[in-house]
């Protein structure tokens, strides 16, 4: 090479040496890389990381050998004396770098291999770091929830192993997050489903324990309010039963819904709560209170719905009576009130609607026949051609 070419090549290898040195220093300072070095890796993550350990070691040794060649070339270039261009040409373009693999390669090849090793290492570090970035905050949240569960358990005097299953599950997930985060990477995404399931379980348990603590501190007041709510249900049930009795008396079809009598069961459940209180089982008391309150709400809804259905039956009977009277008045206006074709459906509908109990289905059928026949007669479609046979009208 010419002196100009030598200087250009020397500057280039100096720059590459400096760049690789900066890369190595940055890698050494990288937080995730340092955590990986100190972690007890297992499973898939360990399998992925073990080859990178060898790459890092090879990278440092290769950089050391490469830097030695660069320093030698710089020394020869600055020493002067006999023409050193042949030696410089060998150092800068020949197989002058002794790699730890036992090969001697040119500086350009050494740079390419160091770059490849560095990129492979940083790619794996980045994959582990990305998984940790997703998993560790969620794990921290689970650990905080677990501490709260333990504190609440102590406050309501539960045994130390009351939540052993949750503790074991949290421990297993923690070991995976810390030691094998890549085991939770699926299709370039981090699978957090196991953490979400545990979060739901911890949140549910924490809620139960909070209810238990509130129950312990306000048992009498809670039972008093619950008793008042059951008293209200009892009054609603009595009103609904009275309405049901009216419907059963007045209407045979459709049949009234069955009687609802939830109060004895609710009062028995409250009595069982007193037994749990005597045993100091506050957690079960908290859960029991929530279930009874929900049952009270469900019963109230059922009673309201039953009252609505029963009321609609009475309203249906009144509606049918009104329609029959309206049709009868229309027939009278048209002079068809006593027509022989109208007598039977009218008598049937009138009987079903004014007798007790009424058959609303039969009344509806008779009223439909009566109304249709009246329309036919009003439109002159009497098949017998009779304008108004009133035989039997008084009957």
Radius of gyration: 46 Å
Distance between the termini: 135 Å
Write down the domain tally: 4
Largest sheet: 2 strands, antiparallel
How much β-strand is present in the residues?
under 5%
Query: How do the strands of the widest beta sheet line up side by side?
Result: 1-2
- What is the average of the pLDDT values? 88
As a percent range, the share of helical residues equals: over 70%
Low-confidence stretches are 385-395
Order of helices and strands: HHHHEEHHEEHHEHHHEH
Shape: elongated
Q: Helix count?
A: 12
Instruction: Give me the count of strands.
Output: 6
Structural class by SSE content = mainly alpha
Can you characterise this structure?
The protein is mainly α. The protein folds into four domains: 3-129, no CATH class; 138-217, no CATH class; 219-313, no CATH class; 314-378. The chain contains twelve helices and six strands. It has helices spanning 3-29, 31-38, 43-79, 85-93, 107-155, 164-179, 193-217, 219-250, 263-279, 282-333, 340-354, 360-378; strands at residues 97-98, 104-105, 185-186, 189-190, 251-253, 358-359. The strands form three sheets. It has a two-stranded antiparallel ribbon. Strands 3-4 form a two-stranded antiparallel sheet. It has a two-stranded parallel sheet with strand order 5-6. Helix 5 runs antiparallel to helix 6, helix 9 packs antiparallel against helix 10 (282-333) and helix 10 (282-333) packs antiparallel against helix 11 (340-354). The longest helix has 52 residues, at 282-333. The termini are far apart.
């Amino acid at each position: 090479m010419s002196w100009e070419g030598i200087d250009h090549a020397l500057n280039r290898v100096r720059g590459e040496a400096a760049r690789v040195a900066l890369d190595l220093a940055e890698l050494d300072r990288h937080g995730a890389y340092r955590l990986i070095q100190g972690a007890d890796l297992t499973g898939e993550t360990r399998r992925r990381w073990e080859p990178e350990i060898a790459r890092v070691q090879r990278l440092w040794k290769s950089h050391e050998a490469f830097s030695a060649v660069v320093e030698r070339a710089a020394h020869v270039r600055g020493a002067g004396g006999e023409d050193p261009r042949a030696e410089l040409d060998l150092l800068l373009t020949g197989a002058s770098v002794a790699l730890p693999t036992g090969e001697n390669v040119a500086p350009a090849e050494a740079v390419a291999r160091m770059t490849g090793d560095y990129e492979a290492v940083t790619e794996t570090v980045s994959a582990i770091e990305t998984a940790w970035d997703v998993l560790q905050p969620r794990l921290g949240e689970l650990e905080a929830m677990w501490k709260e569960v333990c504190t609440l358990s102590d406050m309501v005097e539960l045994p130390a192993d009351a939540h052993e299953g949750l503790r074991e599950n949290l421990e297993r997930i923690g070991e995976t997050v810390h030691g094998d985060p890549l085991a939770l990477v699926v299709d370039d995404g981090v699978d957090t489903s196991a953490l979400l399931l545990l979060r739901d379980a911890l949140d549910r348990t924490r809620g139960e324990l909070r209810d238990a603590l509130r129950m312990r501190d306000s048992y009498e007041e809670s039972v008093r309010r619950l008793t008042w709510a059951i008293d209200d249900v009892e009054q609603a049930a009595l009103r609904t039963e009275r309405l049901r009795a009216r419907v059963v008396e007045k209407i045979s079809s459709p049949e009234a819904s069955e009687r609802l009598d939830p109060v004895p069961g609710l009062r028995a459940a409250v009595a069982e709560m007193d037994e749990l209180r005597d045993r100091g089982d506050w957690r079960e008391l908290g859960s029991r209170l929530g279930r009874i309150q929900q049952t009270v709400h469900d019963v109230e809804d059922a009673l309201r719905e039953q009252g609505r259905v029963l009321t609609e039956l009475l309203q249906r009977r009144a509606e049918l009576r009104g329609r029959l009277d309206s049709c009868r008045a229309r027939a009278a206006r048209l002079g068809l009130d006593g027509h022989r074709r109208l007598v039977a459906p009218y008598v049937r509908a009138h009987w079903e609607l004014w007798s007790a109990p009424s058959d609303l289905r039969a009344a509806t059928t008779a009223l439909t026949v009566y109304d249709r026949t009246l329309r036919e007669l009003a439109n002159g479609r009497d098949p017998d051609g009779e304008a108004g046979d009133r035989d039997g009208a008084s009957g």
